[in-house]
Amino acid sequence: MAHVVLTPTLAKLFAGGHTEHDVAGGSVRHVVRALDARYPGIAEHLDEGVAVVIDGVLHHNAMLEDVGPDSEVCFVPAITGG
């Protein structure tokens, strides 16, 4: 199972304050669906305004990115600018 880390804000809103979770999934999309099954409503917050770090690599459009069984997936606030 992938190890998933949520932001403290999302953890507080949806996961009883727990920031770390083990979730099955072959892609970020599968991870998001699994989290939403546990914590209804979290998916809409993970789809917008959030970047994803998979095994230390930042992805801005990550829904189709692969997630291995031993991967660490961190959802972090997306930073915009320019």
Summarize, please.
The protein is of the alpha+beta class and about 80 residues long.
Highlighted features:
alpha+beta; 5-stranded mixed beta sheet; Ubiquitin-like (UB roll); 3 helices
What's the tally of helices? 3
Low-confidence stretches: none
Strand order of the largest sheet: 2-1-5-3-4
Report the count of strand segments: 5
What's the architecture, going by CATH? Roll
Radius of gyration: 12 Å
Oligomer: single chain
Note the overall shape.
globular
Structural class: alpha+beta
CATH topology: Ubiquitin-like (UB roll)
The CATH class name reads Alpha Beta
Provide the CATH superfamily: Beta-grasp domain
In whole angstroms, the N-to-C terminal distance is 36 Å
Helicity, in percent? Answer: 25-40%
**Overall pLDDT score:** 91
In sequence order, what are the helices and strands, one letter per element? EHEHHEEE
Biggest sheet architecture: 5 strands, mixed
Could you tell me the strand content as a percent range?
Answer: 25-35%
Return the domain count: 1
